[in-house]
Amino acid sequence: MAALSAWFWNERFWLPHNVTWADLENPAPGVEYPKAGHLFTALPLALGIFVVRILFERFIASPCARSLHIHQGVGRRAQPNAVLEKVFTSITKNPDSRHLDGLSKQLDWEVRKVQRWFRHRRNQDKPSTHTKFCESMWRFTFYLCIFTYGFQFLWQSPWMWDTRHCWYGYPYQAMTSGLYHYYVTELAFYWSLMFSQFTDIKRKDFLIMFIHHLATVSLISFSYVNNMARVGSLVLCVHDASDFLLEAAKMANYAKYQRLCDILFIVFSVAFFITRLVIYPIWVLNSTMFESWAIVGPYPSWWLFNVLLLVLQVLHIIWSYLIARIAIKAILRGKVCNDVRSDIESSSEDESASPTEGFKTSPHPSKGENGTNGHCASAKARAQNHNSW
């Protein structure tokens, strides 16, 4: 195990030339450098955030939803049937015509009745509008609070005004309490999202979002350990800037305030374009690629992080194109078009939704609703992920 750890944390990969882990072990009195052990604090904090989320949704968000006449609805449930349930859980949730014909003959049901059973069965486990409103309200509250804290902290930090301070003296840069709290809280939040995936109702994009959260946790952790936390804080703040606007638009959609939803979605779109297509490349990528090259010089993990940041920029461009298509339709038609994620199918008869459902910028990327516009489906919220640092 020690050999595996030594191989993984090879200082020739993670640190600049002529720097070793031993050099970072004994800082001057009163100075603290990042250590991998610091990140274990995020695990109990993640559990605390998860508990706070449950309490928030139950005692704050749920009453707010009811005050907006968003009630816990009980959808139509599929009638118990052992044969169909076995097919649904073990073979397919969307039987083709061959399966439908076979089941129709086996049960002596009409094909349309079998189709209806599968539709009701698929929909019965999906979250209600009330549940999705509560989740969006929790995310809105967290994103707004963490962005406010991060922006206030960075406002007082020299590297916000001159990004070369991200690299002066690197990697011998002290970890301040404000930066530590910002980083660990963000890390804990994404850990909590991973926890909640196993307790929330399972969705079709479970694996995709799990990989996204895992990648985000890994990038935050690795950037902390090799003391790229200064530039990492800039990446986090840029990605947090638009997330709360998206969640606000989704809440307006659930409450059926369509005009407010459209306005918030347009504002979100503008904020997304500015932060991801202007500020991120000009402010962050310029620093990580050119200023760091001039001040510190390249080394193996430097190449890795810059490649990942460039991949993220490519995703920003793709997401921005998809968001722009919906925003333009919203302006021209006066209503944001529908979008699809995995929560409610287009065949569901219960509710309609706007494309705010399909985006979760945090790559935050939250929930998607039923819709009919297939071109919007690919624009789902993986822009959160977007939060992949």
TrEMBL record:
Places the protein is found: Endoplasmic reticulum membrane; Nucleus
Catalytic activity field: sphinganine + octadecanoyl-CoA = N-(octadecanoyl)-sphinganine + CoA + H(+)
Pathway the protein acts in: Sphingolipid metabolism; Lipid metabolism; sphingolipid metabolism
Pfam families: Homeodomain, TRAM_LAG1_CLN8
InterPro entries in the record: HD, Homeodomain-like_sf, Lag1/Lac1-like, TLC-dom
DNA-binding residues (ranges): 86-129
SUPFAM superfamilies hit by this protein: Homeodomain-like
CDD domains: homeodomain
Residues passing through the membrane, by range: 36-56, 140-160, 180-199, 261-283, 303-324
A biological process term (GO) from this entry: ceramide biosynthetic process
Protein name in the entry: Ceramide synthase 5
Organism of origin: Oreochromis aureus (Israeli tilapia)
Gene name tied to this protein: cers5
